[in-house]
Amino acid sequence: MREFGYQCADDVTGAVTLLAADPDARYLGGGTNLVDLMKAGVERPGLLVDVRELPLGRIEPTADGGLRIGATVTNSDLAVHPEVRRHYPALTQALLAGASGQLRNMATVGGNLLQRTRCGYFTDLSQPCNKRNPGSGCPAVAGEHHNHAVLGASDHCVAVHPSDMGVALTAFDAVVSYESADGPGEIPITDFYLPVGDSPHRETALPPGALITHVTLPAAPVARSRYRKVRERASYAFAIGSVAAALTVEDGRVREARLALGAVASRPWRARAAEAVLTGAPADGATFAAAADAELAAARPLPHNGYKVTLMRNLVVSVLTELAGEDAR
Amino acid sequence: MAPAPSSTSSAITLNINGEKHHLPIDHRTTLLDALRERLDLTGTKKGCDQGQCGACTVLVDQRRVVSCLSLAVAAEGREITTIEGVAEGDELHPVQQAFLDLDGYQCGYCTPGQICSAIAVIEEHAAGWPSAVTDDPAPEAGPPPLTPEEIRERMSGNLCRCGAYVSIVQAVARAAEEHAAEKHTAKEASA
């Protein structure tokens, strides 16, 4: 590991100034991904700016009935917050489905959004990787890709974003707030992650050196929401597919639907095509299957991950059916 | 903000098991390596060294964390508890006693991490935290019973290559029952 300086920041402006002055500097939150990548040699920062003592550790109600979540709130504290459990159950479920109790106690909300892909080629320095070393190639396209993207990928990169939390935040239309050397800004989470295209190394719309300060949830659209995750073992594993859904049914018809898919793309995937099919349609199995098919029509599976298309179709139908059943009660 | 960013080491003080340790430390040192290699606290074990096995679990400010992904320099000012610090003198912690009585291990390598994790699991459950297998996460639903399924999910961050899971689950269940009974008695005594 490269030697590095360490500073514990005590105000946001100071932290942002340090990053602006040093392109080799990185923010340190829980460290669950960054320290791991530093050990692997993928990240080689010259300075770590510890942000955990910044006054960004609170969860507060907003005037319009939403929640404003500080970037250094841990995944555990967000998952068990009474208002999140009550009004955004899919977010609690997504958080609790991620990693382990130990890692959730360390990991922060800001860091969770900025975690890197777990593609094996990305973390293996002996291999080319367009995300790590732009222009070097993507061995996953013709190699080991059973858990890679089926939506929105390109020939340059087929890696998936590993976050569970981000999938629920995407269904709930969260907004990411940041502070940068040029001042503060906000980005809807659906625009936060950039399309892969030919620049998979550019992952987010955050300006260079910007610090995520908050994530804001608008008032919960509907009471019923759910996150379901499929993985290769029962717990403590990344998803091979996941769904965050919220559904309101009135008189047997879908009044409002929110749907986001995980582990299928380089970002949490908002399923707008499926939502369009759902809205106003009868809340039944045929509608749910048509919605899933509408979204997955754009899928471009690779030789070893075609199962994901079937898996996601079944998962979407199953979760929506469950939610519709709960709504009918 | 204190020291110059160019320096790659710091003189730090770690508060471990109620005792202060002063040491100069290279910033690259993990809390795990500081405990084992610098402070001779070898009860905490190094398994995968990449956050995937839980053998290095310790408590930081009463929360369980993996010490292999924690930097020692970032642990300054926090209250660290390792397996060496969970007993009260010669009296074992109830979780330690339950692991002993019920054979919650085979080779023992993952055991310090299992025990530190279980201590926190019991506190998290007592505080009403749901888990990924809890049916209804709403606070109104109340804390779920600590079933074997709940214990397995909550302990899933601690791998045991010997496969002693059956007795680990039993040990955690017994320690949790004792903990609940103790709280109940304390409540009655104060009533």
UniProtKB/TrEMBL annotation, chain A:
Tagged with keyword Signal: no
Top-level taxon in the UniProt lineage: Bacteria
UniProt cross-references to InterPro entries, sorted A to Z: CO_DH_flav_C, CO_DH_flav_C_dom_sf, Diverse_Substr_Oxidored, FAD-bd_PCMH, FAD-bd_PCMH-like_sf, FAD-bd_PCMH_sub1, FAD-bd_PCMH_sub2, Mopterin_DH_FAD-bd
SMART domains: CO_deh_flav_C
This protein's record includes keyword Oxidoreductase: yes
MF terms (GO), sorted A to Z: FAD binding; oxidoreductase activity
Signal peptide, first to last residue: none
Domain FAD-binding PCMH-type: 1-222
Matching Pfam families: CO_deh_flav_C, FAD_binding_5
Keyword entries, A-Z: Oxidoreductase
Protein name in UniProt: Xanthine dehydrogenase family protein subunit M
Source organism: Streptomyces globisporus
From TrEMBL, chain B:
A Pfam family reported for this protein in Swiss-Prot or TrEMBL: Fer2_2
Ranges of residues in domain 2Fe-2S ferredoxin-type: 10-86
InterPro entries: 2Fe-2S-bd, 2Fe-2S-bd_dom_sf, 2Fe-2S_ferredoxin-like_sf, 2Fe-2S_ferredoxin-type, 2Fe2S_fd_BS, Aldehyde_Oxdr_Iron-Sulfur, Beta-grasp_dom_sf
Disordered: annotated segments: 130-150
Keywords recorded for this protein, A-Z: 2Fe-2S, Iron, Iron-sulfur, Metal-binding, Oxidoreductase
GO function term, MF aspect, one: 2 iron, 2 sulfur cluster binding
Pathway: Alkaloid degradation; nicotine degradation
Matches recorded under PANTHER family: OXIDOREDUCTASE WITH IRON-SULFUR SUBUNIT, OXIDOREDUCTASE, IRON-SULPHUR BINDING SUBUNIT-RELATED-RELATED
Protein name: (2Fe-2S)-binding protein
